[in-house]
Amino acid sequence: METTNLLEINKENLPQHIAIIMDGNGRWAKQRGMPRLFGHRHGVKTVREIAEASAELGIKYLTLYAFSTENWSRPELEVKGLMSLLVETLKIELNALKKNKIRLRAIGDLSQLPEKTQQALLMGMDETTENNRMDLILALNYSSRWEIMLAVNQIAQDSKSGSLQLPLDEAGFSNYLSTRGIPDPELMIRTSGEYRISNFLLWQSAYTEFHFTSVFWPDFTKQHLYQAILDYQGRQRRFGKTAEQLKI
Ligand code: IPE
Ligand code: IPE
Ligand code: MG
Predict the structure, then answer these.
(1) What value does the mean pLDDT take over residues 215-228?
(2) Measuring from atom 12 of ligand 2, which residue has the nearest CA?
(3) Is 71 a catalytic residue?
(4) Over residues 119-140, mean pLDDT
(5) Most CB atoms closer than 10 Å: which of 12, 17, 111, 240?
(6) Radius of gyration of the chain measured on its C-alpha atoms
(7) Is 219 in the active site?
């Protein structure tokens, strides 16, 4: 692949928040005649490279879709393997997160994750809470419809108890989501040649720019990240206006 020069990226027009649907680990492993977990293990290396490259660039929020509520339907062995990989990775990477001043956060229904996974996550989040270079947000047991339903039910409850006055505006609704306080992603990347959103950040991606690549996640490098950012920088974000209006 032709290398993208980092210098081509306009530092004045960086997305603050990049969201990534990391996809293709299984197919990457299959191509090599290996079990799916082999692909997931290699996917972790990509996470490290992309998190570090993002922080170096000056990205403020990086959200990675790591496990969807639908992923529980996978074979038990794969689910178990993914959960232990997560614990192992969090333990190994904690020092690197601290060194790089990255804050670990998570969105999703964490209460349904295995005890050990929850503990490792809580420890990682707790020990990096002061870091402010970049927020690394893991979407774990996350799905957007789950999140929206939770918000709707909470809103109904708060309204009934009198702690919330209706009607609610968009900003008010956003405060009920697990991404509360986090700006919407300007750029969303999906690897592996799939063109769907798979229940990820539906509300938050109302005006997100999408970048799709056929590269499988374990093969995704910082050069691909730069390419995606350049693609984003070439877009005209019109937010309903005409191109002419934006030139004024
Ligand atoms: C993405 O890779 C990682 C997770 C969903 C955990 P996949 O495991 O979905 O890989 P493919 O789509 O089967 O190739
Ligand atoms: C989406 O990937 C979820 C994650 C990346 C964690 P999947 O590979 O599970 O998505 P679908 O189900 O094929 O759309
Ligand atoms: Mg997949």
Answers:
(1) 98
(2) 198
(3) yes
(4) 98
(5) 17
(6) 19
(7) no
Q: To which H or E segment does residue 134 belong?
A: strand 134-142
CATH number, domain 12-143+184-234, options 3.30.70.260, 3.30.230.70, 3.40.50.150, 3.40.1180.10: 3.40.1180.10
Cα separation of 230 and 21, whole Å? 18
Distance CA 55, CA 57 (A): 5
What's the pLDDT at 86? 98
Atom of ligand 1 nearest to the CA of 24: 14
Q: Give the distance (Å) from ligand 2 centre to CA of residue 23.
A: 6
pLDDT at position 1 is 52
Q: Give the tens place of pLDDT for each residue, 178-187.
A: 999 999 999 9
Question: Is the pLDDT reported for residue 23 higher than 80?
Answer: yes
For residue 121, the CA-to-ligand 3 centroid distance in Å is 23
Distance CA 110, CA 141 (A): 7
Asked whether the predicted pLDDT for residue 88 surpasses 70, the reply is: yes
**Interatomic CA distance for residues 96 and 86, integer angstroms:** 15
Catalytically annotated residue among 23, 25, 131, 135: 23
Q: What letter represents residue 107's amino acid?
A: I
The helix or strand, by DSSP H or E, that contains position 45, with its residue range, turns out to be helix 36-57
Domain positions in the chain are 12-143+184-234
Mean pLDDT of the 45-66 span: 98
> Measuring CA to CA, which residue among 15, 9, 68, 13 is closest to residue 185?
15
Whole-number pLDDT of residue 2: 56
